[in-house]
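Chapter summary example.
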Amino acid sequence: MRVLLAEDDPVSRRALEAFLRRWDYDVIVAHNGLEAWNALQEESAPKLAILDWMMPGMDGVQVCREVRSRRPEPYIYILLLTAKDRKQDVVEGIEAGADDYLTKPFNSQELKARLRTGQRIIELQEELIRTREELRVRAARDALTGLWNHAAILDILRRELDRSRRERAPLGVIMADIDHFKRVNDTRGHMTGDQVLRQVAESLQATVRAYDSIGRYGGEEFLVVTPGSNAASTLQLAERLRAAVREATATTGGAAGPVTLSVGFTSTGELCESDWDVLLRAADGALYQAKRAGRDRVEMAVAPELLSRPQIAIL
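The structure predicted for these 315 residues follows.
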């Protein structure tokens, strides 16, 4: 593990560095408090720090306060070295954000043991962060397909629309629905229906660009948010998505053959002043226009009447 050693006294610094290297730590040396603070601001900062209390520029307590106020994660375990042994001094150091302290002169084996304690705490903290991030990802993903879920993909749409306005760049929105999906469930069972949903999701995910976002909007309906896409490029992507699904499910689709998609799309080039919900309704209206026109096709939202869903759903 990398450890930051901040000590302005050259004799103490060399002795401490020798101990740390003997214990297989990768040592980053700072000669004063300001150097220590700069090192701890770096993206790859050590997660274990030994700070002398009394240093020029910034003392160890000041560095502790700055670290705790400006860098909550990843956690940095801080051990203060001090010649002060009054209880009020110790309390000041702990309240400033130090995790532990040693009073000079100290025993090297005690220092070694306290560093091991710090290392265990850091490892536990990292495990907790990993677990939290895994839970966060699960909460935003559809359990069946692994795509973004309904809430997550709508949040992405809102963020991308805000960014497109700031950057004055186009944004494409694609809504796709599996044709005759109820027939698949009715004739081949819901397990096959789930398999079809996963296959379609895999095909869509493999076809979009790395910076596009795709989510399961609901049931057998999918929403694609494609930054930087005007009407022409959104149309091209929509056609690629439709063709990819048909090809991938040619032999494993519904009872009547491959799975097909009806697709509707729009872009901010056509509805440049629209809010996210207007874009969504436009793409959804175009999708149902594709259903009415025979399915397995792509339609673009170009008319105001496409901004509302038909009263009778077409499955």
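To summarize the output: The radius of gyration is 29 Å.
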